[in-house]
Amino acid sequence: MNVREFEAAAKAVLDPVHYDYFASGAQDELTMRANEEAFRRLALVPRILRGHQPPGLGRTVLGSQASMPIMIAPTAFHRLAHPDGERASVRAAAEAGVIMIAAMLATVAIEDMAAEARKVADDPALWFQLYLQPDLGFTEAIVRRAEAAGCAALVVTVDSPALGRNERGDRNDFHDLPPGIRCENLRETGGSVRGVVLSPEISWRHLDWLRGVTTLPIVLKGVLHPADAELALRHGIDAIIVSNHGGRQLDGTPPAIDRLPVLADAVGGELPLLVDGGIRRGTDVVKALALGATAAAIGRPVLWGLAAGGQDGVARVLALLRNELLNALTLCGCDSTESVPRDLVLRGAM
To answer: Distances from the Cα of 252 to the Cαs of 29, 182, 221, 303, in angstroms?
Structure first.
């Protein structure tokens, strides 16, 4: 009946260790829980008697056409959730007409994901998430693969100079993928698979380098501070994802939705803002749009849908959110996703 119910269905079929990997956050998981709780503190104040047609949901984000302002955030290791892995997820995304951000740590290669998406859509919206590596030659090779596969943007995760401490994973001793499952985007020409290197040395200099080696739009994922948003503008970044990594990196950071209006004020409409973390309802998407987002991204709900029902499960998650979004916009008196005013949201009223 709703997106939250997919988690219980997924837990019933997943290996408990793999469920914990997907479900967990860093340390005390304060930020992970706060992401959802923050939406509950936001009330909607609808307008009435607006006299408009049913709301239009379509958006264009950095040139990518989307049927609605809901994206699939990059999440790793989909084959732990279902044997088809990212193949099933990308088919569901393409069929629904939504933007999917393929993870660098996907268990299906970006080339194969793009091919699967094109089986169900002529022009699927596929972006690629990247951890900048100290080995710039290796980084460039991955960028070239994403370009050749037809990815329309690069999403650089910037909140990971080190790996957040996941205590559930440590208790389960989950540190390696099962035999036969690998991070295929890290596979080199000779067949070996590298590990990801997270380094505190990664800086704006590396973003400038990336800007010089690709013409694709560059999106920064993991921005929470307005000063960093202002720096992104100066460095020619094309969009920002307001995110705390789903609470999986630094525990104790504020909910992403609470930072969204602050960053919207900082960039002044000069670039698109996206947001992820804790989105479970169509009303959550409306709240994000009101507070300055161009679109909102979902992560764990896609994994729960994938585990519970493969491609059909992901499709059901997207359909539920689409129907809820349409209903919420109608009840709020909005005629499109581009006409959601900030005063629609009342903070601290719930």
So the answer is: 8, 31, 18, 24
